[in-house]
Amino acid sequence: MLRWIRQQLGFDPPHQSETRTVYVANRFPQHGHYIPQRFADNRIISSKYTIWNFVPKNLFEQFRRIANFYFLIIFLVQLMIDTPTSPVTSGLPLFFVITVTAIKQGYEDWLRHKADNEVNGAPVFVVRSGSLVQTRSKNIRVGDIVRVAKDETFPADLVLLSSDRADGTCHITTASLDGETNLKTHFSVAETSVCQSVSQLEALQAVVECQQPEADLYRFVGRITVTQHGEEIVRPLGPENLLLRGARLKNTKEIFGVAVYTGMESKMALNYKCKSQKRSAVEKSMNTFLIIYLGILLFEAVLSTILKYAWQAEDKWDEPFYNQKTEQERNSSPILQFISDFLAFLVLYNFIIPISLYVTVEMQKFLGSFFIGWDLDLYHEESDQKAQVNTSDLNEELGQISEELLFLKAVSLCHTVQISYDQPDCLVAAGDPFSHANGFSNHMEYYASSPDEKALVEAAKRIGVAFTGSSGDTMEIKTFGKSEKYKLLHVLEFDADRRRMSVILQTPSGGKVLFTKGAESAILPFTTSGEIEKTRLHVDEFALKGLRTLVVACRHFSPEEYIDVDRRLNSARTALQQREERLQEAFSYIERDLQLLGATGVEDKLQDKVQETIEALRLAGIKVWVLTGDKHETAVSVSLSCGHFHRTMNILELLQQRSDNECAEQLRRLARRIKEDHVIQHGLVVDGASLSLALREHEKLFMEVCKNCSAVLCCRMAPLQKAKVVRLIKTSPEKPITLAIGDGANDVSMIQEAHVGIGIMGKEGRQAVRNSDYAIARFKFLAKLLLVHGHFYYIRIATLVQYFFYKNVCFITPQFLYQFFCLFSQQTLYDSVYLTLYNICFTSLPILVYSLFEQLVHPHVLQNKPGLYRDISKNSLLSFRTFLYWTLLGFCHAFVFFFGSYILMGEDTTLMGNGQMFGNWTFGTLVFTVMVITVTLKLALETHFWTWMNHFVTWGSIAFYFIFSLFYGGIIWPFLHTQDMYFVFVQLLSSGSAWFAIIIIVITCLFPDVVKKVFYRHLQPTSTQKSQSLSAPQAQTLSCMESLCCYQHGQSGCSRLARFLEQMTGQCQASGNHCHASNNRWGRHRRPQTVIMNLDELSPPLGFKNLGCSPDCYIT
């Protein structure tokens, strides 16, 4: 019971040791002192809440928001003391906001629960009590032997025991984990591979010892001890023996495996961990504005309290004849009375804080994010991939960013390539396992985890040395038609530190040979023979042509040398402690005294329109940094080919620095050179080693050099260095907004570090996509994502935030002014129903619709004129100056509302023809009516892109207010304590003077605003305003905006919803194939921008590593 409670509360009992012991088939020791370890069950929990903790946990999260917590305090104050307004006025809006948010989050979590139940309830087969038993996935326990059939997914992390193949291997695809569709071969140890029946498995006596769960998909350290005939045999276990949950079995009839990690301890589940919360600059500005308004509220409350007591210093106002004090009031403490009055004024003015702002912003971001996925311009038809939004909280942030024969054999054998044939189950065909290579198959296709490996093997095949398949530990190649078989003895896996991979093979003649390939810096220093200097020149020549280079070498072992090598490898691989370190030592010992064979070059083809996209970003004011692992020459060549560097640019280099002093001196030389040649554009190239030195002691000088360069290229970068560069740019004095874009697993840390991370759906897996905030299919889509979506989202959210503060200033300032005319008696100006519904009903829909559909400029104009992005740079629309303008405008309009109505009724309240007089509720209703009309029309003046939905909510909100007021004031409501508003609104509308006052006051408020807009548009127009005159005629000639349009060929389930929305908004013709639609875009930010992009995709589409913007770049 206690364990269940801990699981419900989200606590996991800590592991007691660094390793875990798993008894296969749960065959525990029979002695009485053994206490089984406790492991997690196999349930997957991706949900955030349970039925028990939803209410407290959700409330806790919501009340961490300052506005919600503030209104909670106000509501409690209203319950505890006598306040001028009902607790309903604060409680109802708070309840509405909390409820709407809770329903949204609860529904999303219910969907997660539903998906979890489908996974946890999936049928699986396990070996129990000597038979194969069907059960549910959630019932699998650590130690259970699980059977998985072809094309099924693995329900837990399993150590492979056996397969239907004689050699105990199987093929899997990990597309759901890392996006790689290639086949991977996994192995079982020889002692368990023979157990292919349930009875044999039931009799198996084996124990698996392995590390405790960790998130790294590619790391597993363990060993298996098999007891045969009383003898214990120990075999090492590594990643090649572990079948990960979520992977799928391919080309193998069935396998048996023992569960070692289950449920939330599986590697797939551990990768669910939440990323650090990113907050947009708009949200930070919003919180700052909220604090300022909180200060205004406190000032008004304190001032009103002081003025009340100053006024009551005169006896005639302290206790007038019509309002005598009670004995309790006379004897009460002055301090407590002062506090009570202060709290009462705080309650009276509390609506200056817009509680509904947060829920409106949430709805705008959530609904607006769908427009990116619906944008046909961001849809890639060949791969059937559309843009996806993983984090809608950052929408507006997008608007803020800155050759020998042995050599050919080595190429054909030193790899991890798999082969797929036309026929199913081809690799286990009867007879010769290499029958397909001997002519029985007309088609075979290579699969590899690295596109480079696949390209090299295919190239060697075209030359005449073809890899034709593998069976167990035997690999076969055909050398100009002659078949040769090699036995695979060891694989020395690639890692980022060594930057090479190797295989040890037994040749047909019985000799032992090592083949290795890797970066030239990782191979050439260890070579002792071969055409070293000649090959070095060839590598440099390949790099200058923009090719991705590899160097290939070999080493022949004598029998004695191989025995030593085999012993070292087995010892390191069976170690449970410090296995990685011991393996590195063994690899270093083996991969030396190499004979150089040759070098390869693979073209890293760029995607379409990479150069145009980078140029558009530059014109938009974004400085681009390229962060790549390629060598210097390759990186420079690719930078030139994609337009990152120009041919006329002066290229500065910070390379191969070996000491802090040497690095500092070079930086000072570069700084002087930039000052001397200030007219010329400069580009900086820096390698990873020099960057480490520069960041250690000379960070300020390095950033000064980078700031004065038009483009920066960082080569030979490790993944962690990429993240450090992003952090360096983020924390620079200019505080730019950074955007990182990449497509590989080595880009994840950089993507998570940047303000906005974008993943490209390339061929290096989908880890970057899964960890990004947004994902696009091609690099060229970045231009529209930033220049159009970013622009639109920013102007929408910026106007939404400031308009909310403006209309609340208009709302509460007349209440403050009214106190001067009622002796600060805390009398409310508005009826409590109006107080409650102002933000919820009367003024909420127009701004929400505006924030979804507004377009200052036509999307095609924004794409064709990237310079328009600069108009929203540095968070210009949410600057303090703009905020002050909206605030002062609210105060001015509020003064006009109040004193305009006062002038009308202050001296003569007989506004009816029959001499009937109006009272204070009529006065307050007049002010409220003028206010609702004015703030709604003010938003109409700010709207540039009108749809029928804008018209409906704008004029409909005003009409709804009138209809509601007539209905509310025309009936005596029995559940209300007072009937203050009965027939008030009807009488108000019966007065011609009141109608005249409404029209005059509204015109008085809005006419200066119209004059200002006309004046500035004609005398000081911005670039955006100049482009607006071009966008209208262009829009008329274009048949479709092609943004919100549905997919024409049914590629997406949301297409019908998209088209329905377009038809509703009057932007899409019902029967045509094109739409007159508004593209929902993104907004801008307050600080300089930096974009960090990774363009390192092989294969046809991608071709670059990480592009980044420097601190002073402005995504405008």
Task: Report on this structure.
Residues 36-90 form the P-type ATPase N-terminal domain. By secondary structure, the protein is α+β, with helices and mostly antiparallel strands. Among the domains are: 53-118; 123-271, Calcium-transporting ATPase, cytoplasmic transduction domain A (Distorted Sandwich), CATH 2.70.150; 354-363 and 788-1019, no CATH class; 388-417 and 606-776, HAD superfamily/HAD-like (Rossmann fold, 3-Layer(aba) Sandwich); 482-603, Calcium-transporting ATPase, cytoplasmic domain N, CATH 3.40.1110. The protein is 44% helix and 17% strand. It contains 39 helices and 33 strands. The strands form 7 sheets. The protein has an 8-stranded mixed beta sheet with strand order 17-18-19-20-21-23-24-22. Strands 14, 25, 29, 30, 31, 32 and 33 form a 7-stranded mixed beta sheet that branches. It has a 6-stranded antiparallel beta sheet with strand order 3-2-4-13-5-11. Helix 23 packs across helix 24, helix 29 packs antiparallel against helix 34 (920-942) and helix 33 (880-905) runs antiparallel to helix 34 (920-942). Residues 10-15, 422-442 and 1031-1116 have low confidence and may be disordered.
List the helices and strands and how they pair.
Elements: H1 2-8, E1 19-23, H2 54-62, H3 66-80, H4 88-120, E2 123-128, E3 131-136, E4 145-149, E5 157-163, E6 170-174, H5 175-178, E7 180-186, H6 190-193, H7 198-203, E8 206-211, E9 222-228, E10 231-237, E11 242-243, E12 248-250, E13 254-261, H8 267-270, H9 281-311, H10 315-318, H11 327-331, H12 334-348, H13 356-368, H14 370-374, E14 388-389, H15 405-413, E15 418-421, E16 444-447, H16 451-463, E17 465-471, E18 474-479, E19 482-492, E20 500-506, E21 512-518, H17 520-523, E22 527-529, H18 532-544, E23 547-557, H19 559-573, H20 579-590, E24 594-603, H21 610-619, E25 624-627, H22 632-642, E26 650-654, H23 660-676, E27 682-687, H24 688-697, H25 699-707, E28 711-715, H26 719-730, E29 737-742, H27 748-753, E30 756-760, H28 767-770, E31 774-776, H29 781-818, H30 832-842, H31 844-853, H32 859-864, H33 880-905, H34 920-942, H35 948-969, H36 984-989, H37 992-1019, H38 1023-1037, H39 1055-1064, E32 1089-1095, E33 1105-1108
Parallel strand pairs: 22-24, 25-32, 26-27, 27-28, 29-30, 29-32, 30-31
Antiparallel strand pairs: 1-8, 2-3, 2-4, 4-13, 5-11, 5-13, 6-7, 6-12, 8-9, 9-10, 14-31, 15-16, 17-18, 18-19, 19-20, 20-21, 21-23, 23-24, 25-33, 32-33
Helix pairs in contact: 2-4, 3-4, 3-12, 4-30, 9-12, 9-29, 13-29, 13-31, 15-16, 18-22, 19-20, 21-29, 23-24, 23-25, 24-25, 29-31, 29-33, 29-34, 31-35, 33-34, 33-37, 34-35, 34-37
